[in-house]
Design a protein that fits this description.
The protein folds into 3 domains: 53 residues; 165 residues, Distorted Sandwich (Glucose Permease (Domain IIA)), CATH 2.70.70; 43 residues, LysM domain (Membrane-bound Lytic Murein Transglycosylase D, Chain A, Roll). 23% of the residues lie in helices and 29% in strands. The chain is of the alpha+beta class. The strands form 6 sheets. Strands 2, 5, 7, 8, 9, 11, 13 and 14 form an 8-stranded antiparallel beta sheet that branches. A 3-stranded antiparallel beta sheet has the order 1-17-18, with no helix packed on it. The chain has a 3-stranded antiparallel beta sheet with strand order 6-12-10, with no helix packed on it.
Amino acid sequence: MFFNFKRLKTGAVVVLAVLSLPVSGQDLLARQAPIDKKMRAIDSVALQRLVGDEQLENPAFGLYPDWNNQYAHRYDVELPEEYKIDLRHFCMPTPSTRITSNYGYRASFRRQHKGLDIKVYIGDTIRSAFSGKVRIVDYERRGYGNYIVIRHPNGLETIYGHLSKQLVKENQIVKAGEPIGLGGNTGRSTGSHLHFETRFLGQAINPAEMFDFVAQDVTGDYYIFRSNKGKSELAKNETNVRPKPTARPRSKVHRVKSGENLSVIASKCGTTVAKLCKLNGITRTTVLRPGQILKYS
């Protein structure tokens, strides 16, 4: 049998060196080991934060040809054959569950409606659906009215139209659920509502394919966008629907009745005022309206 005496000799020297350390020195080495592990963990968290910050500063930079504050959805770019859009870490832009106009062709206007109209009242809080960076804050008299466009790291751009007020500025980084505007009736609108669009490289996608406003949830963890020779083709995929055993429980909601306050609702729903406030992004002093929808679970 052949032995590597040189390696054996080196190992013996290292062992003897450690054994020859004073007891206090050996204790120091022993204490240093868990510190090194903690430092590596801290470095890993810091790196993740750094990557996350970069993704928000330059969202989906590998997909979009440029960054501008002018055009809401005009891109001269070849669509990828397939792209997996991450819908996790979302926030519903409004707790309202009432859809007043669906996505699709409108015979009365003889044109396509590229988003969903959700009933909100003037002054209702509108929130960012995902974390991202505000690309456009503008006004369009014969269209969106006061509107906001946000680009997200998952490749989507979301558009929020007919606002009474915009609460963010262009190039501002926002987190999912952060208030960005107030519901309104500006632009080409016949009543207060939120016009909500989801687009991928300028291509409109039916928001109902991804957002279930009645359940206040997304339709799945991911959405698969497929294109065919440059034309948008929205394809359902098994990853778009969560398997029933692991499906996310649907939120339970309560419709506010006249005279009810947060304490009364919390008692009826078997929860607390603090939880109601957290789930709905409101405070204890928020004035409730009859018919308003509140999540309580």
